[in-house]
Amino acid sequence: MEYEILKTEIKDNIAIVTISRPQALNALNTRFFHEMDDFVAKISQMPDVRAMIITGEGKAFVAGADIAEMVDKDQKEGTEFSRLGQNTFSSFGKLDIPVIAAINGFALGGGLELTMGCDFRIASTKAKFGQPEVNLGLIPGYAGTQRLSRLVGLGDALYLLMTAEMIGAEDALRIGLVQKVVEPEELMDTAIKIAGTIAAKGPQAIKKVKQVVRNGYEMPFEEGEKLEAEQFGTLFGEGSEGREGMKAFLEKRKPEW
Ligand code: CO8
């Protein structure tokens, strides 16, 4: 598929996706979701790719779902547009590799929801965050009502969702919405460095950390423990990554994954 909105590159085993429709502050339209789904499907078939970074071009990361596209939708189409975005953002969690949001500017509405589908978030000091849907008589439709409270707790989530207040990067860091804040010119280097750090670990271990934490988060604690024990065990088999990692430590050499 030819991309009109996404700019993609793969460098040193790291995929970088730049959302590029700056004239509309990278607002998310149907075309965007089809392109992103296509790219995620491609990446899932590329075992050498060890991390994915998503960023935006210009002064916005993403200023929300495309209001111009949404304005004429009826009830059925509204639900379909919601499901389209939910599926795309949930697909990030199903990839075996870390998906990192590098937030360069406005991350509003569907833009903030996109970042919350990622595994974690690095922000520039210029980034701004908010769920302004109620200003438009709407609610979030790409799982923001579900993910925000899981990430920052009920009080901060309801505060942001009800007031539609826009907060800066330091406040986002304080409430745990982002994991790191850096100067704008350091944003991509920082994201690439973190991606590179993770890419050097055992890929099976990274895949399992992601799956066990994400799936366990939605389970009762004891079921999560059971899942952890099963997956822990799989890293001990003959020729497994765990065996190689432990042997390499004892033999004082670098592991070969
Ligand atoms: N959709 C479409 N176009 C947009 C959007 C958007 N979300 N945001 C900005 N644009 C366009 C503007 O219309 C403008 O276009 P033009 O130049 O043709 O007039 C261009 O981008 C530049 O924007 P501004 O001139 O407004 O730039 P400012 O720097 O003055 O303001 C803001 C920046 C504050 C970010 C402002 O653009 C703004 O408030 N944008 C809208 C933010 C918003 O409300 N986002 C939430 C949208 S709703 C949503 O995301 C719901 C998600 C779930 C959907 C579920 C599906 C059913």
Layout of helices and strands:
Elements: E1 6-11, E2 14-19, H1 30-44, E3 51-56, E4 60-62, H2 67-70, H3 75-94, E5 99-103, E6 106-108, H4 110-117, E7 120-124, E8 128-130, H5 144-152, H6 154-163, E9 167-168, H7 169-174, E10 180-182, H8 187-199, H9 203-217, H10 221-234, H11 241-250
Parallel strand pairs: 2-3, 3-5, 4-6, 5-7, 6-8, 7-10
Antiparallel strand pairs: 1-2, 8-9
The structure holds octanoyl-coenzyme A.
Q: What does this 3D model show about the protein?
A:
This protein has 257 residues and is of the alpha/beta class. It has 2 domains: 6-199, 2-enoyl-CoA Hydratase, Chain A, domain 1 (Alpha-Beta Complex); 203-250. The chain contains 11 helices and 10 strands. It has helices at residues 30-44, 67-70, 75-94, 110-117, 144-152, 154-163, 169-174, 187-199, 203-217, 221-234, 241-250; strands at 6-11, 14-19, 51-56, 60-62, 99-103, 106-108, 120-124, 128-130, 167-168, 180-182. A 6-stranded mixed sheet has the order 1-2-3-5-7-10, with helices on both faces. Helix 1 (30-44) packs parallel to helix 3, helix 3 (75-94) runs parallel beside helix 4 (110-117) and helix 5 (144-152) crosses helix 6. The mean pLDDT is 97. It binds octanoyl-coenzyme A (CO8). Octanoyl-coenzyme A (CO8) binds at residues 24-25, 27, 63-68, 70, 78, 81-82, 85, 106, 108-110, 132-133, 135-136, 138, 140-142.
